[in-house]
Design a protein that fits this description.
This is Tetratricopeptide repeat protein. The protein is an all-alpha fold. It has seven helices and no strands.
Length: 141
């Protein structure tokens, strides 16, 4: 989150080496956490293929509505925001609107801000991103 992507990837690779390979789906709490971390690190680093592959696996490990499942869906929206800003913003808005306000905790809002930070600069002025950005940034549209 602080921009030290190469260091995060190196640390992730070392962690994977400890396991000798990424843990199988649902093998342990630590295994689920590693798949989640792979999604997060690769999303921030902009490695769309690895992030998406890890997210697909990680999503299978959590029931719908679980906070980690919501965070993973927001990471997916951030991946879309890089290549299709309107769609990424729409996905994030839909996720947040369906989530009761009391469940929009610090981690959820932090993950939603990843979507805004993934938007290309030229997309910040698009009408399709205005409402999602306002909700995510907690300001009027």
């Amino acid at each position: 989150m602080i921009g030290r992507h190469a260091e995060a990837i190196t640390t992730l690779r070392r962690t994977e080496e400890i396991y000798e390979r990424p843990p199988s789906a649902g093998s342990s709490r630590q295994g689920r956490a590693l798949w989640y971390d792979r999604t997060l690190v690769n999303t921030f680093a902009g490695d769309i293929k690895r992030a998406e592959d890890a997210r697909v696996t990680a999503e299978k490990l959590y029931p719908a509505g679980h906070r980690s499942a919501i965070l993973l869906a927001l990471h997916g929206a951030a991946l879309h925001a890089r290549t299709d800003p309107a769609e990424g913003a729409r996905q994030a808005l839909k996720l947040l609107e369906e989530l009761p306000a009391e469940r929009r905790d610090t981690r959820v809002m932090s993950a939603s801000r990843v979507v805004v930070s993934a938007l290309p600069d030229k997309a910040h002025g698009l009408s399709a991103t205005r409402e999602p950005r306002a909700l995510i940034e907690n300001r009027p549209a």
